[in-house]
């Protein structure tokens, strides 16, 4: 998905002279074509992420629309004050492109478990947050950030998952089963596992929310009118991710009949290392784990 | 140069009047940072003398940028903006009043404030970005002036920016350091020494000069040197925190303490012979 995003960016830089790409010394080989073609609109700032954000803000002052790229843990956590003050406060059209999200780099240990980045960013006014789950999702995200000049964070997981059906819109119903009473909502890299789970268990529908912030109230109302039981599956701490946002939405909208469930890591740092699949199994984010949770919900609800 | 006729014979009358205005604004608002404001008055005035105000007024793409990284010296910045016709007097007089846009740290909701600061260590990276942008746009005549405090230089982000400025040879970047020797609580030499500051800048690829930060002609000469130079430029301005008020100079309690009405009257005598 990362390669797709940068190919789109490369094409767009041919159309839009205001785009400037900053990287913080990551992406070996990835951005060379951009650097070669647009040496005046590319800079590798070195291993200096907070400087990258400040430079991006300065570029906006000079009329540019910068993209800042590095691993999400360096991009978001290290640069929080810069993102808050230099980007969001000024409503600058800077796109933060963060990769290796969730447990993509699980083997590297807890400093590289990117499971709180949505929580860190969504508290900031003016920023838009995208978590595409497929190549098609990357295209929709890129279209929107080109149209809307606003601060944005794009959370890109590893892999090149492709959905079999054409995708309309940022957020979309991936699998709609008219007789289902349970809706699974997911985003980002876990979409793949959710689709596999839906192949095993046919009793739920599946919706993908690519734009985590802002949520679309009209869209949410349609979903919650149709489904009163909703399971959120995400590779993000449950206290500050999409589940948390949906909890707030349901309470504020007074949707008393809606019951929200969650599959997501608890509020802790994990000392153990492991692959993405290891952590998916650990937190029930694997296809089998999702099927198990679906059965549990339907059982408790007396559906089966 | 027209000089003040009382205690502060070394200061121009214009900056003495500015100090008086700043003191009254801060006193009425019961605000902090008068010491930090008084150390930069000559620096700010020299910088605004050195730029094309009309381009700034019109928001020209090739205007010079002035970034106030030590955003807590806001009252001095607002007073200077008013002096140069960039801030209405009515708005200036709203400083510190509920509902006013004039915050205690400069913010971009005020016209002609290029960037909101207040958290320290942000102005330099932004200024480096501006210079990179100007270079990319081939705006050969635009320059960026950034005013940083010496205490602020303890923030690591500055050194990332300075390293990059030297690496890219951003010769349109002028860093003015208000070297008053104090941080928020005590001397920077006691908390984490900046010495040798000039050598540090030079080792980062800058041309660096030291001036008396209350000698406007010396600052103007340094800025002329910057304009004709070919490297990023640092002007280390040796200043006195609270300069112009005998009872404030070097007394760091005035980092936070607002002047009373009586203090303002004393200042009026010391700065202007009681004429305002």
Shape estimate of chain B: globular
Along the chain, the helix and strand elements of chain B come as HHHHEHHHEHEHHEHEH
Number of helices of chain A: 12
Summarize the amount of helix of chain A as a percent range.
25-40%
- The DSSP helix count of chain B reads 12
What's the CATH architecture name of chain B? 3-Layer(aba) Sandwich
- Low-confidence parts of chain B: 1-5
Query: What are the segments of chain A in which pLDDT stays under 50 over at least 5 consecutive residues?
Result: none
Secondary-structure content class of chain A: alpha/beta
Mean pLDDT score of chain B: 95
SSE order of chain A, as H and E?
Answer: HEHEHEHHEHEHEEEHEEHEHEHH
Please state the average pLDDT score of chain A.
Answer: 96
Sheet with most strands of chain B: 5 strands, parallel
* CATH class group of the largest domain in chain A: Alpha Beta
Total strand count of chain B, please?
A: 5
Kindly report the name of the CATH homologous superfamily of chain B. Thiamin diphosphate (ThDP)-binding fold, Pyr/PP domains
Largest interface: A-B, 27 and 30 residues
CATH topology of the largest domain in chain A: Rossmann fold
Calculate Rg of chain B over CA atoms.
Answer: 18 Å
Rounded to the nearest angstrom, the distance between the terminal CA atoms of chain A is 38 Å
Query: What's the Cα radius of gyration of chain A?
Result: 19 Å
């Amino acid at each position: 998905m990362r390669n797709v995003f940068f190919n789109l960016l490369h094409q767009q830089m041919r159309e839009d002279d205001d785009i400037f790409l900053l990287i913080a010394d990551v992406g070996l080989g990835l951005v060379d074509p951009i650097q070669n073609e647009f040496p005046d609109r590319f800079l590798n700032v070195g291993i200096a992420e907070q400087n990258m954000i400040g430079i991006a803000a300065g570029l906006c002052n000079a009329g540019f629309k910068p993209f800042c790229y590095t691993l999400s843990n360096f991009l978001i956590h290290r640069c929080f004050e810069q993102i808050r003050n230099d980007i969001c406060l000024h409503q600058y059209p800077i796109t933060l492109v963060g990769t290796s999200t969730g447990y993509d780099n699980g083997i590297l240990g807890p400093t590289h478990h990117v499971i709180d980045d949505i929580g860190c960013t969504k508290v900031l006014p003016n920023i838009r947050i995208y978590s595409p789950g497929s190549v098609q999702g990357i295209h929709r995200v890129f279209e929107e950030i080109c149209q809307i000049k606003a601060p944005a964070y794009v959370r890109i997981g590893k892999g090149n998952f492709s959905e079999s059906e054409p995708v309309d819109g940022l957020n979309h119903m991936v699998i709609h089963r008219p007789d289902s009473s349970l809706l699974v909502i997911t985003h980002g890299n876990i979409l793949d596992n959710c689709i596999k789970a839906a192949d095993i268990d046919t009793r739920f529908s599946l919706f993908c929310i690519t734009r985590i912030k802002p949520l679309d109230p009209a869209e949410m109302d349609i979903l919650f009118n149709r489904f009163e039981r909703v399971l959120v599956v995400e590779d993000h701490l449950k206290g500050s991710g999409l589940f948390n946002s949906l909890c707030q939405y349901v309470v504020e909208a007074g949707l008393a009949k809606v019951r929200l469930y969650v599959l997501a890591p608890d509020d802790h740092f994990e000392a153990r290392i492991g692959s993405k699949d290891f952590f998916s199994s650990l937190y029930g984010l694997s296809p089998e784990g999702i099927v198990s949770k679906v059965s549990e919900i339907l059982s408790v609800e007396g559906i089966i | 140069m027209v000089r003040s006729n009382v205690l502060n014979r070394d200061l121009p009358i214009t900056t003495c009047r500015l100090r008086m205005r700043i003191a009254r604004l801060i006193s009425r608002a019961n605000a902090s940072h008068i010491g930090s404001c008084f150390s930069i008055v000559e620096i700010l005035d020299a910088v605004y003398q050195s730029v094309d105000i009309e381009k700034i007024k019109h928001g020209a793409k090739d205007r010079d940028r002035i970034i106030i990284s030590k955003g807590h010296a806001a009252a001095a910045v607002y007073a200077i903006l008013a002096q140069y016709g960039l801030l209405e007097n009515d708005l200036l007089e709203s400083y510190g009043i509920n509902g006013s846009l004039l915050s205690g740290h400069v913010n971009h909701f005020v016209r002609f404030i290029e960037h909101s600061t207040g958290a320290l260590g942000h102005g330099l990276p932004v200024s480096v970005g501006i210079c990179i942008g100007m270079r990319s746009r081939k705006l050969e005549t635009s320059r960026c002036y950034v005013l940083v405090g010496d205490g602020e230089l303890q923030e690591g982000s500055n050194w990332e920016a300075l390293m990059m400025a030297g690496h890219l040879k951003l010769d349109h970047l002028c860093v003015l350091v208000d070297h008053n020797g104090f941080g928020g609580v005590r001397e920077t030499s006691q908390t984490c020494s900046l010495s040798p500051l000039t050598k540090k800048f030079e080792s980062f690829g800058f041309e660096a000069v030291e001036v008396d930060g209350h000698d406007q002609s010396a600052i103007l000469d340094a800025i002329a040197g910057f304009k004709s130079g070919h490297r990023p430029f640092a002007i280390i301005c040796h200043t006195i925190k609270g300069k112009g008020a005998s009872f404030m100079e070097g007394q760091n309690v005035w980092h936070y303490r607002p002047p009373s009405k009586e203090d303002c009257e004393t200042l009026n005598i010391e700065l202007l012979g009681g004429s305002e």
